[in-house]
UniProtKB/TrEMBL annotation:
This is RWD domain-containing protein. Belongs to the CCDC25 family. It holds the Pfam family NFACT-R_1. Residues 283-392 form the RWD domain. PANTHER family: COILED-COIL DOMAIN-CONTAINING PROTEIN 25, DUF814-RELATED.
Length: 481
């Protein structure tokens, strides 16, 4: 059971909810979402109150009136705080909450980063409290189901945002057309007044499937036949002809090594009993499922995967919309957590060279692993990779901007040189004629020409044709005119 409130002031829709007691708070801590903001009276016992924001909003988008209403609500639901005329309220993102499995009382939390904790003074305001409490409702709350609903809603929202962000309007239209036609073809055989085949054919009438196909591959060739497909897309298409084992390695940023050579680099460490290993893995798996949910954290045989939900591909590597970025833990023939974890990264529109860089970062992290033998570290590595992916993405975008800046500087210099060449060489006609005389004198000395004017002119013209010195003709003509 939780309490919900519908009169919290906000410029955009929000969901405000509060745990019934400390046991309910435990469930709320476990199944919170990245867009939840947690409120609590600082240094005093109080209810845990959350406000859930839209997918595209963060704590920085909270309006002043929203924060004030939340502070009044949490203060009023504190036995000690409600008696005070004013008190401090602490609020932070759900992702900053830290819950230790051992050593913490039921319903209590800590913080991963105290710098991200915000404090605000709250003076009692009976009018606000009265308005908020009027909308209070006690509702049945299936924690895990609500969490799954959130994940699915976020997935659909993100899919729509990516489609708008990384596809052109024409591509979106054709993408939707393709999906609609696939849905129709999947339903062949259904219908009353007409057969499924007729309905399917009627549905696909007028659709240019070649355009759909090219759009799906990333746009085909650009002007002049230039290949404008994303780097990752070209690499993936080139990998089609490779053997499965080689394809697996290349898609994860490994070069000429074999699978055995790669896995050999993850040996070492201690040894654990088979039962102990399974027990530790099962405990870690339960924690990961509670953090990410079954839609994000998946287990297939002896491979664990987590999709990085907050990752947004760089525009440098798209379109088309790439597959999700996946972190993968391979447990086959592994003694993890008593052996260094074999963790790889793939997808997300990250090209091969990027995956190589990220693998190098993982190796650096692995050098410190010896002190963590026997500990579950997959969550820690996921968070580490999130940071490294963003750092790498920012560095690549910075390089592109610098190259673009350099190219513009070179282009500007080229244009300036062209303008310089177009400028008249001589300020006055006298300077021009003086230059011609000097050149003519030098030419006479070189060729041994006679002093006869007519013969001299013919001799000069003949020699100029032989030496391809046509640029001097106008100067010479001036001297003889």
């Amino acid at each position: 059971m939780v309490f919900t409130y519908t009169t919290i002031r906000s410029p955009f829709p929000v969901l405000c909810y509060m745990g019934l007691d400390k046991h309910e708070n435990e469930h709320l801590i476990r199944t919170g979402t990245p867009t939840d903001i947690w409120f609590h009276v600082d240094s005093l016992s109080s209810a845990h109150v959350y406000v859930r924001l839209p997918f595209d909003k963060t704590i920085e988008d909270l309006a002043e009136e929203t924060v004030e209403d939340m502070c009044q609500l949490v203060k009023n639901n504190s036995i000690q705080g409600s008696k005070l005329s004013s008190c401090k309220i602490c609020y932070t993102e759900w992702g900053n909450l830290k819950k230790e499995l051992v050593g913490m009382d039921v319903g209590t939390v800590g913080f991963k980063d105290y710098k991200k904790r915000l404090l605000r003074r709250c003076d009692k305001n009976k009018e606000i409290i009265k308005r908020i409490e009027k909308s209070k409702k006690q509702v049945t709350w299936d924690y895990d189901l609500e969490h799954e609903k959130y994940i699915e809603s976020h997935r659909l929202w993100k899919k729509g945002e990516n489609k708008k962000k990384y596809l052109k309007p024409d591509d979106i239209e054709m993408f939707d057309a393709q999906k609609n036609q696939v849905d129709l073809l999947n339903n062949l055989g259904e219908g009353d007044s007409e057969s499924g085949i007729e309905a399917g054919l009627r549905g696909i009438e007028g659709v240019d499937f070649m355009k759909v196909f090219i759009s799906d591959l990333g746009g085909g060739s650009g002007e002049g036949g230039e290949d404008n497909r994303a780097e990752w897309k070209v690499e993936w298409e080139d990998m089609r002809v490779l053997e499965e084992g080689v394809k697996w390695l290349r898609s994860r940023g490994f070069g000429e090594e074999t699978r055995e050579e790669v896995e050999r680099g993850y040996g070492g460490g201690g040894e654990g009993e088979g039962g102990e290993i399974e027990e530790l893995r099962e405990a870690e798996k339960e924690v990961l499922e509670s953090i990410y949910g079954e839609e994000i954290f998946k287990v297939e045989e002896e491979v664990w995967t987590v999709e990085l939900q907050d990752y947004v591909p760089s525009k440098l590597f798209t379109p088309p919309v790439p597959p999700p970025l996946i972190v993968e833990l391979n447990l086959k023939s592994s003694q993890y957590p008593f052996q260094k974890p074999f963790i790889t990264l793939f997808g997300g529109g990250v090209p091969f060279r990027g995956l190589e860089d990220l693998n190098a970062s993982l190796k650096e992290w692995g050098e410190e692993w010896e002190d963590r033998v026997g500990e579950p570290v997959f969550f820690e590595v996921i968070e580490f990779l999130k940071e490294k992916v963003e750092e790498w993405k920012e560095e690549e975008e910075k390089k592109v901007k610098e190259e673009e800046k350099k190219r513009r500087v070179e282009l500007r210099k080229l244009k300036e040189n062209e303008k310089e060449e177009e400028k008249p060489k001589f300020k006055t006609e006298m300077e021009r004629r003086e230059e011609a005389k000097q050149r003519l004198g030098g030419f006479i000395n070189e060729s041994g020409a006679t002093s006869d004017v007519g013969s001299l002119k013919k001799q000069i013209q003949k020699d100029m044709e032989q030496q391809s010195r046509k640029g001097d003709r106008s100067l010479v003509d001036d001297l003889f005119n």
